[in-house]
Amino acid sequence: MRERILVIDDEPNIVWLFKEIFGDAYEVLGAQTAEDGLRAAWDHDVHLVMLDLRLPGISGLQALQELKAQGHQGPVIIMTAYGEVKTAVQAMKSGAYDYITKPFDVEELKHVVQGALRYAKLTTEVTRLRQELEEKFRLKNIVTVSPKMIELFSVIERVSASDVCVLIQGESGTGKEIVAKAIHYASSRKDKPFVPVNCAALPEHLLESELFGYEAGAFSGARKTKPGKFELAHGGTVFLDEVGELPLPMQPKILRVLEENQIDRLGGTRRLPIDVRVVAATNKDLREEVKQGRFRQDLYFRLAVFPITIPPLRERKEDIPVLAKHFLKEFADRRNMAALTIAEDAMEVLVSYPWPGNVRELKNIMQQLSLLCDGPVISKRDLPAFLWDPDWPSHGSGILGQASVPAPWAELEEVLDDEAGLGLPQLKQRAWAAIEKELICRALAKFQGNRTRAAQYLKVSRRTFYTKLKEYGLG
Ligand SMILES: Nc1ncnc2c1ncn2[C@@H]1O[C@H](COP(=O)(O)OP(=O)(O)OP(=O)(O)O)[C@@H](O)[C@H]1O
Ligand SMILES: [Mg+2]
Predict the structure, then answer these.
(1) 239, 359, 361: which to mutate for ligand 1, most atoms within 8 A of CB?
(2) How far apart are CA 188 and CA 200, in angstroms?
(3) Any idea which ligand is nearest the CA of 177?
(4) In the list 9, 141, 212, 425, which could disulfide-bond 14, CB 3.0-4.6 Å?
(5) Which CATH number fits domain 314-471: 1.10.8.60, 3.30.930.10, 3.40.50.150, 3.40.50.2300?
């Protein structure tokens, strides 16, 4: 679709001029009065309005306000005669994008018009992306049929509207982060940033500057002023992930920010007011951490104004089939393929497995299957053995059990690409072997080559471990 420019000017030759200059690239509409122009902007999707200030009837300034009032979102450029610049400036204050004086310099006109259209395109793009993001993290996109979760969501929906601190507790992989995002995107802060901070990722001194920012010269190396996460989230939400790992000395500093809604940049001389909502998450039992003296009670009470707990997957087994199908579809869509289906015997296995890595583990397994299964139906024998074999030395946490958490996708994809000539069963075998070998190497490295400890770590018997070492040429 060609972009549309609406020119509102009582002099017909101005409209004519626009058609001459821009008619090839854009669609140019003309209106000789503000009334006609407003109607045209209402009837057509107009990307840019060129508005004369001096019009018969309704003035240009009034027309500008009317345009905004009737919901026109694109840029409006004011056209003024020489000497009317003051009014033009006033128009800019009322929301005009720019102004240009008559008579036109054609090059300048082209430059201004093209710049405004580019700007319009970008703003629409930003709005679209924002809506997409919002859509993605809406509560209804969190897949569940569990009554416990649905109940939880009705509570979350209500709490999203207010500004209270929410503490999300739950085992690793239960969905704490997507719930935190859903809270943000369901709140009135949704158009402002959602800023995650992983409290476990940084040592104390770096965490402080990360959170609160610093002024130039605050320490050697601080050449430029840098805003902290709290500042960046102004108007939005800060997500304190793994808050249980927050170093003790940092805790009173966070508490102070929450109580006073102000931050101190490192090396700063004045306090900056901030407006953020805090959502925190942890997979630890924070109350227990408080008892043990590892977490301050006052901060705990401040964060846990509204505590919610996401149940582990094994306590909502009814979610396993819907989630499994959801992930298979998601991966299939991404590769433009038909989704695999799950045979009954395989589904039984999935439902009875305890999923120590929760939804994330299930998601990873579904991804592995999407890549490796000769499909279209996943049967029990397609599933990794640790899922269904109770004699597997490490039901749920063995060599491949561990692999299901930090999934080495890159390697799998590589195997598949490199050996595209092989049949899928062989590829599958190779891929599993590659993962197993990699895990064994990592375990050996972790314990400086101590095989007994590596075997213990991988939860397999010494004998199995030695057999595997030989098999992979590591012994
Ligand atoms: N109910 C759900 N519906 C759809 N996807 C989900 C659901 N729960 C979790 N997921 C997906 O599972 C993965 C893990 O979720 P998330 O990162 O939110 O977990 P977490 O509790 O923050 O884990 P960790 O404690 O390890 O940080 C993500 O890819 C997330 O999108
Ligand atoms: Mg997380």
Answers:
(1) 359
(2) 29
(3) 1
(4) 9
(5) 1.10.8.60
